[in-house]
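Q: I have 303 residues here and want to know how they pack in 3D. Can you give me a structure?
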Amino acid sequence: MVSRFTFTALLALAFGGLLLLAGCGRSASDQDSKSTTTGAPVAAATPSERANEETQQASAASEEEHGHVAGAHGGIITSLGRDSYHVEAVFEKGGTLRLYMLGEDETRIQEVELQDLKGYVKAADGTESVSFELKPEPQEGDADGKTSVFVAKLPEDIAGGELNVTVPSIRIAGERFRLGFTSAAAAAAHGDDGMPEKVSDDAERELYLTAGGIYTEADIKANGNVTASEKFKGFRAKHDMRPKPGDTICPVTMTKANPLCTWIVAGKEYEFCCPPCVDEFVSWAKDPELAKDILEPEQYVKE
């Protein structure tokens, strides 16, 4: 009787040990896999979330590829397709965004197919992207069916702040490219938040082609009856934030002036660092109060 009981007990212990070994043999990864597959499913990203992610990725990739380079219109130049093409993005007062299409050589205008573009913009401290449309704005000299500029009106509630922008698809010569940039990059390209913004095209013609203050009809004629963006089309600004003693400096930013960027005001030739500074200076010249503080050209020298 005792012998039979002992045998039964030993058999039960052996069976229990086998169960214990089987349980211990199951790996942690197996258990994790089971808990993952039997848990709540991961929700798919919403269109807004995907747009947010695309905006951040495109902006980061663009800055990594190209860095912060100032453009002729006072914007930020960023690359498309590993420098196959370039775009200068200009944030204007009033919430207007302009994209100037450039070639592999950033000084060359690039014409692209007429097309409506869809973009997404997000405040740097925001969480939601807002879609907007960029319309083609063919320029004088663009071929039929082509444009070298796109224009958009950004949402009023976020315009003027620090923005992240992405355009998921731009079609050029049968290929599609993604563009991403930030408004903060434009300021970084100039090295100073105090750099003036480019005025809008309509305001620019009014500014340059009408006399006022010390800016005369003779000045307009001497400058070729054109605006700064027309005269300096394709001009690439390089800002030297640390001029040396004796260097001619820009009257607006006090950075080193570029002898290729000049404008005649009150019959005298002034040198500037970039075309948007010419905008600012001419507006000063046409304001009777501000014009009083304008010095002679030879006085704008780093001491």
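Q: Anything worth noting?
A: The chain has two domains: 47-190, 201-299. Residues 47-190 form a domain with the Immunoglobulin-like fold (CATH 2.60.40).
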